[in-house]
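quick one: JF5 bound model?
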Amino acid sequence: MLVDIVTIFPRFFDSPLATGLLGKAGERGLVQVRLHDLRQWATDRHRSVDDAPFGGGAGMVMLPGPWFDALDALEAEGPARVVLLAPDGQRLDHQVAQRLAGEPRLILCCGRYEGVDERVRTRVHEVLSIGDFILAGGETAALVVLEAVARLVPGVMGNAASAADESFAAGLLEYPQYTRPAVYRGLEVPAVLRSGDHGAVERWRREQALERTRRLRPDLLERAEDEGAGEAEGR
Ligand code: JF5
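yep, here:
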C-alpha cells in the first residue's frame, strides 16, 4: 500500500513513521508513506496556505489553490482514494479501517486552522473523523487512521493481531489477559486459565468478552444484533 500525506507539518510524522509497527511496515515495503509539504504548492512569495474567511469571522481558512494543485500533481501519478480528516467526517471504526486497508493507494489530507475552503471537498472521495472533538490539525487524525489501517494490511502483523481483530469485527471487546506471575501482590490469575483445559479456557474467554461488552459497550452488541451477527450472543 502507498500512502501520500499532504500536510503543512511533514516533520510531525517523523517519529511515528520510524517507530514500532509503522517503522517495520515501512522497512519491509508493505506500507510506503510519502510526505508532502502543502507549501510546495503555495504560489505567493510568503508561501501562504491560508487566508481570512469570506463573510468575516475568527481565524483563517486554508486556500483552495494549494490543495487543488497538490491533488492534481499526486493524482497525475495514478489513481488513489483521497481522504480528508475533519471533525464532520464519517467516524473511523474497524470496518472503515478494513475497507481502507484494501486500497492500493491513499492520499490523506491534513487540514489546519479553522478549516479548509469548502471547494476542496469536491476533490476528496471521503471525509473521516476520529471522534467528536476538535484537534489543532488533521495530522493527529491521519496518524490514527494510518496506524489502524496499516496493521490490517496483509503481512504487517502476524497472527497475534487476528484474534483481537476478529473479536472486534464480531462486535465484542477482548477478554481479560494475564501473564506471569500467577499471583502478584495478592492478585490472582483466574484458575481456569491455569487449568490446562483448553475448552474451559475458550468458554471462559467468550463469556468474559460478552459480559465485558454488555457492561462497558452495550452499543457494540446492539450493532452486532442489527447486523445479524447473532452468533456473538451465542445464538
Ligand atoms: C481539522 C478542520 C481539520 O479536528 C480534527 C478531527 C477531529 N476528529 N477527526 C478529525 O481534524 C482537524 C479541524 C478543522 C479540518
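The CA atoms of residues 43 and 66 lie 8 Å apart.
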